[in-house]
Structures are given as C-alpha cells and as structure tokens.
Specification:
The structure is a homotetramer. Chain A is mainly α. The two termini of chain A are 33 Å apart. Chain A is globular, with a radius of gyration of 17 Å. The first copy, chain A, is 68% helix and 0% strand. Chain A has a single domain, classed as Helix Hairpins (Orthogonal Bundle), CATH 1.10.287. Chains in contact: A-B, A-C, A-D, B-C, B-D, C-D. Chains A and B meet through α1, α2, α3, α4 and α5 of A and α1, α2, α3, α4 and α5 of B.
Chain lengths: 114, 114, 114, 114
C-alpha cells in the first residue's frame, strides 16, 4: 500500500487537465463515458480467459503492466468525474458499505446474484 | 474531502465479502465485468442528457443520490479487483500521471482524442 | 429463424421514435452510449456465473426472457445508431468477415487473444 | 440496404469460428463480455465529441471506417451470442417493439429517461 492519497491524486489530475485546457471536454457525461470505455478495456484483457487463468494474470509481466495501466485509467476518470461534480468517492463508498451491511446480513445471506 | 482512506475501505470490502463467503465469485474476470456493468449504470444516468444538463445533475437530489450510489459501486468493484490481484491502485495512477506528463506536454498539446 | 428482416425492423424503430419525437435524443453519441449500457445489462446477467452455468442460462424461463429482452435492446440501439448514420450493418459485418478470413487463416491460427 | 440476411451471416460466423476451433472460447458469458467491449470501443470514438460533431462523424473517411468496423464487431458478437443460445434476435426485437408500443403510447408519452 502506498501513502498516496485520493485528494492529492485528484488535485494532480485537475492541474494536469487545466494545464492542457481539457476542462471543456470534461463534462460529467463525457467522463462517465470515458470511465466505461476504460472499464471495457480492462474486461478485454480477461474476455477469453478461464476463471483460473484470470486469477494468474499478474504472473505475466506484460499482462500485469496492462492490467495496472487500465486500473489507473479507470481510477483517473472516476476521480475526475467526482471532482467535476463535487462527490467524495470514499465517503460514498463508506456509506454504501454501511447500507449493504443491513441489506445483506452476514449469516445465511446468499449472493445478491443467486 | 473525507479522511477515510483506500486501504481501510479495501479491508472493509474484503471482510464484507469473506463474511458472506462471496470470495468464490470474486475472480478477477468477474470483478472486471462487474466494474464495467456498474460503469454502464453510471453512463445510463447521463445517456439522454445534453452536456449542459449533465453538468447540473447534482442539483436534483434523487439524481445526485443515484450518481453517488453508482460511484460507490464502481469504486467498490475497482478496489476488490485490486485486492484480489495485489494491485496498489493509487500507486498505479500516480505512475500513470507521471507517464502522461511526458506523453502530453502542457504547451501545444492538443487533446489525445483530437 | 424468422423471416423478419433488418430493414423492416429499422423502419419500425425509426417510425416508433418519430411518433414520440425522440429524434432529438438520438444523436450517434447518445445511441452508442445507450448500446453500451444495454450490453452492460446483458453482461450483468452472466457476471457471477461459471462458464458452465452461463451455457445453461436458457433452461431457466425467467433468465431466458431477460436475456432475450437485453438482446432486443442491444439490437434496437445498434440499428437506430446505423439508421441515423446511414450505415448498412449487415454489409459492414460481411466486409469484416472477409477481412478476418485473411487476417486469421483457418490453419494454425490461434485465437486473436492468445 | 444490402440483401444480405442475418441467418446467412450467422452461419458464416459459426463456420469461421469452427474452422479455427474457437468454439471453446465462445461461452455465452465470454461473448456477452466481448460484445460489451466492442460497444465500449464504439463509445470511445464519440467520447469527447459534442452532439453536433458526433452527427457529422461519417464525413471523415477514417472515422467512418472506424465506426463501421466497430458496428461490424458489435453485430458479430451479438449474432454469435444468439447462435450459441439459440436466440432469434430479429424475433426478439420484433416482440420488444410490440411491447414498447403499449408501454410508451405515441401521444403525450415523454421519453423513458425524462
């Protein structure tokens, strides 16, 4: 785990975009689309793999680098999306876990997709 | 900004899944798919909006709640994906911004999609 | 196989949208987003299933109906996208198969993702 | 409009995959994922464009070719998905339009996303 934090990365991303005058492209609608495109690129790495192969992906250095690169892209667009809308992503997740703990009790739960 | 941090949320998500015996579903392949599904649900909120309407989405409390809920879901699956593969998402993003600063110099750059 | 054809369905979709004055929403950008949202809803049905479970999905009438419904949505947005841009989807696919037959010779090929 | 038809293309795709022994990869789960990946690649073309720019995309021959290529990929995976599950995509869409005509009456409807 790094000691980097989300607000610092969010600031760096905002400065990066501002220095290149990219703010005009960064509507919430476009950033949500870009996030889903990057999520699709992450899925692409796994699309033909068996579950077992997918679990060993990081053993191949080229694939590992590709996965990390897509993770970075997904997180970058998620944080930029949150920045333009003033959303605190960590607080949103924290609140969601609270709600899910009530929705899916630990005993006898079953998976939501079962 | 909250003082919550990513490692703490990642631990909470791991304990949540373990308490429900959901680890069997959480292959990297499945978590990448789930991440892209949630990204799609975020896009859905914006799909028929103009760029201007998308920028005002948080003014409507119901839509704001929906957006925050999808942000939480995207982040939850991203962190769980990183957890099962041992990826440090913040370090991956930090390294990616470093690379992008070289790839897209601030002056005269143009948007990568232009 | 039905004897329905693509041009007839495309016309029906265009008339349906016109009668409701939905043309204003149907920019190529929005229709591409809507297509990807529906593709995500199709993925959602399968996201936690094993490959074997996914192959038996049509044995459950409720799941079968859900799958067919998402297939219809994906095709609807794909045809509407093609309609607004004047693209002949069947001809585009036919030309693509021709190209792929050269790109991936039948003998000794290996899967593109291997 | 071409006089190509869907069953003929579906057969060609099935023969193409069989000749390369790709059937092993073509579970419904994997084909749904591949479909969503291709839909994401279509969205990528439009992600930073204004609605107006998106409507003019076919005026640029390189972009037009790229769009047609992604349309072909989306349709290819949709038809292969339907093939392995025995779904008649055109009949599914026809039935869905019937249902939508009842759900969204032509007069005074409003868009489903309004």
């Amino acid at each position: 785990m790094s000691d980097l934090d989300v607000p610092a990365l969010q600031r760096r991303l905002a400065e990066f975009a501002a220095a290149r005058d990219w703010g005009q492209y960064h509507t919430p609608k476009n950033l949500a689309a870009a996030l889903s495109v990057e999520a699709g690129e992450l899925v692409e790495i796994f699309q033909w793999l068996t579950p077992e192969q997918s679990a060993r992906i990081m053993a191949d250095p080229d694939q590992a680098r590709r996965v990390e690169d897509e993770v970075a892209d997904v997180l970058a667009y998620l944080l930029q999306f949150c920045e333009v809308l003033g959303i605190d992503a960590l607080a949103a997740l924290d609140a969601k876990i609270d709600r899910n703990e009530k929705r899916f009790p630990a005993k006898g739960g079953g998976h939501p997709m079962e």
